[in-house]
Structure formats: C-alpha cells, structure tokens
Amino acid sequence: MKTLVCESLSKDYGxxxxxxxxxxxxxxxKIVGLLGxxxxxxxxLIKLASRLLVPSAGRITxxxxxxxxxxxxxxxxxxxxxxxxxxxxGRDLLDLYKDFxxxxxxxxxxxxxxxxxxxxNMPMKKMSKGTKEKVQLILTMSRHAKLYLLDEPIAxxxxxxxxxxxxxxxxxYDENATVLISTHLIADVENVLDEAVFxxxxxxxxxxxxxxxxxxxxxxxxxxxxxxxxx
Length: 231
Known about the structure:
The chain is an alpha/beta fold and about 230 residues long. The protein has a single domain (about 1-230), classed as Rossmann fold, CATH 3.40.50. Helices cover about 35% and strands about 25% of the residues. The chain contains nine helices and nine strands. The chain has helices at about 40-50, 70, 90-100, 105-115, 130-140, 160-170, 185-190, 210-215, 220-230, and strands at about 1-15, 15-25, 30-35, 55-60, 75-80, 145-150, 180-185, 195-200, 205-210. The strands form two sheets. Strands 5-6-7-3-8-9 form a six-stranded mixed sheet, sandwiched between helices. Strands 2-1-4 form a three-stranded antiparallel sheet, covered by helices on one side. A hairpin with a 2-residue loop joins strand 1 and strand 2 (about 15-25). Helix 5 (about 130-140) runs parallel beside helix 6. The protein is globular and about 45 Å long. The relative contact order is 0.19.
C-alpha cells in the first residue's frame, strides 16, 4: 500500500519556490531518509504532509486521503524544534497525548521514559536539550500511526543520544507503517534506512533503495550524497 504520494507537488513562499513539481511515492513498511542540505525543501514537504501547509500546486495524499482531520489521526509528526510547553512535566505530557491521540500507547511511553531514568515529575524547562529531544521522540513514537514524520530528529544532540533515538525509531514503529526521516546528517542514519530520497533546490534528484544505491555506486549513501551536493 502507498502511504505517502505526491503528484506534481509544488509550494511557493511568495516568489520563492520551495518545492518544485515533486512526484514521490512511499510504501508502507519502509524507513526512508529525506536527505538534502538546508533550504532544499525537506521541512516544507513534511509540513505539507502534516497539514501545516497547503500546496501551491499539485496533490499530496496520505493512505489515499488528502491531508485533513482524517490523516491527522494516522500521522505522527516530530517538528525540528521544541514544541511542548515548558511548564509541563512528563505526566502532564502523557495526559496531553492521551487526550489528543486515540492511538497513543501510554504504557510504551512510560516504559521508554523509565528505561532512560527520565524524571516524570520534572518540568520540561528544567530538562537538558538532549532529554527534551528524547521525550519528544518517545511521545511521537508511542503512537500507533501509519506515517511517522521526523524532522531533523538527531540534530543538536550528542552521539550517544543519536544512537538512542535511532534505536527507538527502529524498535517502535509498526511494520505496516512508514517512517520519513528528514536530516542532513547522512552518516548517522544511513544504516537504518531502507530508501533514500535526495532533495535539491526543491526537486527530487534521486529516490532509490539504500542497498541498491550502495551496490550501483560502490559508495555509502553519505559519500554519494557529498558527490551529488558538492559545492
């Protein structure tokens, strides 16, 4: 089944075209890297899929539905910045997610927070940046969604935290779901990816299976990415 489909999808910000005639089809059961330098259109594509933006042209669908209240119920979105209220603690956040999302698995979230020794009574404002990143990811991955949209989930955190985040993604998504990871830190994520999508100036320049890419080029995804985007 096709989880995410883009057909001639474009998005303009005034005179700037952030996405330009994008055609993309992602199947369920895949972890896909949305890879490109800053300003390539990665966040714009994710925001269109999460219904935070609307297309200027073309069409995007999630499991056959255009972004709507229906798709919000099956899409779990992790923004590229802290979005949770600083005054809330872990228990408040669990209650918040239970209220908003019928597919939220509280037991799974508690288990992950406990395994990391996260103090459930500590407000977000007192947590370190790395702990905040982990809490946000735990909440996102504790939903039984069809599509997980993760925007720069490992940016700004230390290597140990990156390893934890990637392990969490691998072990907590449903095999019938799709995970789309936006990042420019290719070397850190390529071992968990099934497919890679390269975005450049709002256009897709490559969409290929990672194993196939490595075999055909003799390079890692990171090495090939550097070649494609060499200044």
